[in-house]
Write a structure and sequence with these properties.
Layout lengths: L1 E6 L4 H13 L3 E4 L10 H13 L5 E6 L3 H7 L7 E3 L3 H9 L5 E5 L5 H13 L6 H13 L4
Parallel strand pairs: 1-2, 1-3, 3-5, 4-5
This protein binds D-ribose (RB5).
The site of D-ribose has 8 residues, from helix 3.
């Protein structure tokens, strides 16, 4: 898969760990995050990654900041983005299967690398189930488009 990864200064080490972990599995990782520990602003990287996913330039995205919250909030402001913060693998799997999430986010200050690996594995391996879930995804899009 072609996956975009974005992060702020809090999550450089976690980003590098997950990037290598996924590259070792054969994925192509596009790094739009910061590689510096110098303080910066997470919306920059949430937007960059979200734009690539929204334009279809990547299959999906991974975002990491201190908590995963700020960077996912920023990403969710981009049309068609469904970014979810997960601190355990079960939610990551269901977020893809039921919610057709296209970005998974987590916090470098919240979880360790082993849990992060499980989260990305579940997210990337799961498939959207469609069916009864599509109506709800369509409703989310309707909210986004001001139709509801
Ligand atoms: C940066 O200090 C921190 O606020 C950020 O990494 C993230 O946790 C925001 O949600």
């Amino acid at each position: 898969m072609k996956i975009v990864i974005g992060n702020d200064h809090i999550a450089v080490d976690m980003k590098n760990h997950i990037k290598k972990y996924l590259e070792d599995k054969g994925h192509e990782i596009i790094n739009v995050g910061t590689d510096s520990y110098e303080r910066t602003d997470y919306p920059i990287y949430g937007k960059k990654a979200a734009d690539m996913v929204a334009k279809g330039e990547c299959d999906c995205g991974i975002l990491i900041c201190g908590t995963g919250v700020g960077i996912s909030l920023a990403a969710n402001k981009v049309k068609s983005i469904r970014a979810v913060v997960c601190s355990e693998p079960y939610s990551a799997k269901l977020a893809k299967q039921h919610n057709n999430a296209n970005i998974v986010a987590f916090g470098a200050r919240v979880i360790g690398t082993a849990t992060a690996e499980m989260i990305v594995d579940e997210f990337l391996n799961a498939e959207y189930e469609g069916g009864r879930h599509q109506k709800r995804i369509d409703m989310i899009s309707a909210i986004e488009n001001g139709e509801m």
